# Entry
Amino acid sequence: MHPSAEKSHLSVARPSLVRMAADALRQAIQDRRFARRLPGERELVALLKVSRPTVRSALKILESENLLERRPRAAWKLKATSKKRARTLDGEVAILSPFPLETVNQHAPFVLHWLDPIKDALVKIGYRLSFYGKPACYQQQCEHALAELTKSRRVACWLLYNSTAQMQRWFRDNGIRHIILGTAFEAGSGPSIDFEQAAICRHAVAHLRKMGHRHIGLIAKTPSLAGDVESFEAFCRTSVDGKGEDSPIVELHDGSFEKILHAADKMIDRRLRPSAILTLGVPETVTAFTRILQRGLSIPRDISVIARDYHPVLNYLTPSLSYYMRNPDFFANRLFLLLQPVLAHAPGDYQSNVRLYADLIEGASIARQPAAKDETNSA
# Structure
């Protein structure tokens, strides 16, 4: 499972660069920067700042879209514009993100896995997919940045990734067609698609209880996204059984390495140390996992670890980690199915909250808790 997940990650990274080159060429054709023929490959390499193989692959994509044709020993020629192709060039669906496409693999590798499938599906119905990394749109005062961005582009539908409550409210109040890639903060904020974060946390707690764990801790960043808020609340409701701790065992932090490390230490040093820890976020998982081992404790003998979120780097942890895997192809398919009625309706007229489920990938980081183990185990 782990090697195949890593292999899938590697296979997505290169096509994304090809797609970016194809998008740039398609936009140049739409803007009529080329008359009847494209420049030669060497000039395109210089213009796009990519390798020749990347340029050739991008040209093949545009050829498959019926935008270009090439005769033997001749330059790439622009085909005459048809009504069907004009729709392809004019329709744009845009992802709005707090970080640029170049750093998606660092921040959210899951996005890379569903990006190309949704691009391919949209092309077939006459739309292209664009990606806008705009940190200013994620600030507390985001109205001006959002207004400038949406006025400068004729976008059929915006896909809001990691959106704040202010962003969701602004798109709704301004009647701009959008889909929330995540959980909505308020009812009626617009159609949304997300994995059922609360269900993941409930399942994690239930699974650990089935393994005999009664004292379960949570390490997470202070929740700011709606899905994280739901995760936190679900954990707090389900982790207390009334037989030990009177309140949930939770350590929150601000996202910095020092604070995550401090949260892990506080969890380990508790008088009644949890026998299992659930982590929300990849930095939390890696830091807590390594800190437990650094403190001389054993995983899973002393503390079991289970993670809500996946990243390919987690494949390299030893012992192998238990985590929840989200299926990117299934996500792309459901997003495409949601997009079609959203595009067909006026902004705000179609409301649907799609919720998906993740699969638990069981590693060696969870051990069954002996029934007779002393509940007052301390560090």
Summary: The longest strand covers residues 91-97.
